[in-house]
Amino acid sequence: MAEEARSLNFIEHIVEEDLTKGYTQNDLRFRFPPEPNGYLHIGHASSICLNFGLGLRYNAPVNLRFDDTNPAKEEKEYVEAIKNDVSWLGFEWATECYASDYFQQLYDWAVKLIQDGKAYVDSQTSEEIASQKGTPTEPGKESPYRSRSVEENLKLFKGMKDGEFRDGAHVLRAKIDMASSNMLMRDPVMYRILHKAHHRTNTDWCIYPMYDWTHGESDYIEQVSHSLCTLEFLPHRELYDWFLDQVVSPDKLRPKQREFARRNLSHTVVSKRKLLQLVEKGVVTGWDDPRMPTISGLRRRGFTPESIRNFADTIGIAKRENVVDVSLLDFHVREHLNKIAPRVMGVLNPLKVVITNYEEGKEEWLDAENNPEDETAGSRQVPFSRELYIEQEDFREEANRKFFRLKLGGEVRLKNGYIIKAESCTKDDDGNITEVQCTYDPKSKSGSGTEESLRKVKGTLHWVSIPHAITAEIRLYDRLFTDATPDSHKDKDFLDFVNPDSLQKVTGYLEPSLKDAKVGDQVQFQRLGYFNVDTDSTPENLVFNRTVTLRDTWAKLEQKG
């Protein structure tokens, strides 16, 4: 029991403490509250895993609530994408909620605040209001409209609701304390006029509540016990509690806001505004571009829900922000794909090999294991013939003793096949090697049990039979930015660090077992990396994305640097 307690994160300790101080199991309820103004990214994945993980740990409901209070930026497309992402990650929500469900209740509560002298209509411009806010060390100045009568405020607020005024003509502000040391308590705006159609309420409303007013009140309506936010909302907690003070009744549970640190990922950006810039400027092809840190981009690239959940569990929950190296995310997807991805052979940079003592026109089918990590994965047949492709980098005319691949006079084993020996090579007019002539040992076939098949050679190469190979478009994805923290430089734009080699397209030559590969299928191209079939793929034109290389090549590059 003590060992389990030590493994709790600080949020779980808060829940455990509340359970000892009067909360019951039935009181617990959590929520994940995205704003539907963009696609979710890897940072949201941590929050999803935290909230839904708490739900699973305590057998408590978790709501999916859309904080849809800004129709200027929110769309139904984003709602559907968010629901798809949460489901894909493997979580089920108890209730699908929307802040817009509570517009009438929020309005009625605002009217009550006006009646109690705790809110007023301000007719200044946003610039004038900002200029009166003061500084952290100097108090703000009261609005000239702060002393309006309750009757006038009620009339103006109803006029705002009924659409009698243009955008920006008035706002509703809470009447708190213009001298507060917390700038957010200096008469914050609760409502603004916005003549925009809402994706759910259409034109029923032309005033919309601000996030700080909506957030705690929505938690209260849903009886959320623990409202978990990222660290930038810590200064908002005082206002969260002040707004709750105005509406809570003693017979209902009062939500509590608690904060955890945002986890930033290296070599990318997670600001929705900056991600939108990448899309609008054509740096990427869309929100689901496999180079994007969005959940839809990671899914398209071939990341698995398990790998993202394991990543979130590993980085954990903390009270201080930090940058997590993207190589840790890569590690988790490698670890998971190693267990589930079938092994296949594909050549991306082909060099022709002719086995001169293999009969012309002959073919045979070799037995190949699908996944050595999975005993139930079985095997498949791969065709072998006189003419093969190997990778260009797997042959050198001359090489030192540390080069264990093919060289003139040297031997290697072809995976699942025979031992071959390089006898000669052909070059073009520029001196580039275009073909390697080899001989093979007919008795060295893998798995045949002959003495020759048991002979040890140091190198094993992947290959494909040229007459049987199918072609596919291979998209080699790499990190989108060359800098670990591209948006941390005050003197440079984050776009200055875009990696020009983040996508390379090549033609791959693959074994024929992949002919019927379907969108989303995941495989390991032996010795090359993990790949999956892209959504652009068709039966006539297969497209594979590289999810991740077999090893972290960036770590080596950065060590050299």
From TrEMBL:
<dbReference type="InterPro" id="IPR011035">
    <property type="entry name" value="Ribosomal_bL25/Gln-tRNA_synth"/>
</dbReference>
<dbReference type="Pfam" id="PF03950">
    <property type="entry name" value="tRNA-synt_1c_C"/>
</dbReference>
<feature type="binding site">
    <location>
        <position position="211"/>
    </location>
    <ligand>
        <name>L-glutamine</name>
    </ligand>
</feature>
<dbReference type="InterPro" id="IPR049437">
    <property type="entry name" value="tRNA-synt_1c_C2"/>
</dbReference>
<comment type="similarity">
    <text>Belongs to the class-I aminoacyl-tRNA synthetase family.</text>
</comment>
<dbReference type="InterPro" id="IPR020056">
    <property type="entry name" value="Rbsml_bL25/Gln-tRNA_synth_N"/>
</dbReference>
<feature type="short sequence motif" description="'HIGH' region">
    <location>
        <begin position="34"/>
        <end position="44"/>
    </location>
</feature>
<feature type="binding site">
    <location>
        <position position="230"/>
    </location>
    <ligand>
        <name>ATP</name>
    </ligand>
</feature>
<feature type="region of interest" description="Disordered">
    <location>
        <begin position="125"/>
        <end position="147"/>
    </location>
</feature>
<keyword id="KW-0648">Protein biosynthesis</keyword>
<feature type="domain" description="Glutamyl/glutaminyl-tRNA synthetase class Ib catalytic">
    <location>
        <begin position="28"/>
        <end position="338"/>
    </location>
</feature>
<feature type="binding site">
    <location>
        <begin position="270"/>
        <end position="272"/>
    </location>
    <ligand>
        <name>ATP</name>
    </ligand>
</feature>
<dbReference type="InterPro" id="IPR014729">
    <property type="entry name" value="Rossmann-like_a/b/a_fold"/>
</dbReference>
<feature type="domain" description="tRNA synthetases class I (E and Q) anti-codon binding">
    <location>
        <begin position="460"/>
        <end position="534"/>
    </location>
</feature>
<feature type="domain" description="Glutamyl/glutaminyl-tRNA synthetase class Ib anti-codon binding">
    <location>
        <begin position="341"/>
        <end position="441"/>
    </location>
</feature>
<keyword id="KW-0030">Aminoacyl-tRNA synthetase</keyword>
<keyword id="KW-0547">Nucleotide-binding</keyword>
<dbReference type="InterPro" id="IPR020059">
    <property type="entry name" value="Glu/Gln-tRNA-synth_Ib_codon-bd"/>
</dbReference>
<dbReference type="InterPro" id="IPR050132">
    <property type="entry name" value="Gln/Glu-tRNA_Ligase"/>
</dbReference>
<keyword id="KW-0436">Ligase</keyword>
<feature type="compositionally biased region" description="Polar residues">
    <location>
        <begin position="125"/>
        <end position="135"/>
    </location>
</feature>
<dbReference type="InterPro" id="IPR022861">
    <property type="entry name" value="Gln_tRNA_ligase_bac"/>
</dbReference>
<feature type="binding site">
    <location>
        <begin position="35"/>
        <end position="37"/>
    </location>
    <ligand>
        <name>ATP</name>
    </ligand>
</feature>
<dbReference type="Pfam" id="PF20974">
    <property type="entry name" value="tRNA-synt_1c_C2"/>
</dbReference>
<protein>
    <recommendedName>
        <fullName>Glutamine--tRNA ligase</fullName>
        <ecNumber>6.1.1.18</ecNumber>
    </recommendedName>
</protein>
<keyword id="KW-0067">ATP-binding</keyword>
<feature type="binding site">
    <location>
        <position position="67"/>
    </location>
    <ligand>
        <name>L-glutamine</name>
    </ligand>
</feature>
<dbReference type="Pfam" id="PF00749">
    <property type="entry name" value="tRNA-synt_1c"/>
</dbReference>
<dbReference type="InterPro" id="IPR004514">
    <property type="entry name" value="Gln-tRNA-synth"/>
</dbReference>
<dbReference type="InterPro" id="IPR020058">
    <property type="entry name" value="Glu/Gln-tRNA-synth_Ib_cat-dom"/>
</dbReference>
<dbReference type="GO" id="GO:0016874">
    <property type="term" value="F:ligase activity"/>
</dbReference>
<comment type="subunit">
    <text>Monomer.</text>
</comment>
<keyword id="KW-0963">Cytoplasm</keyword>
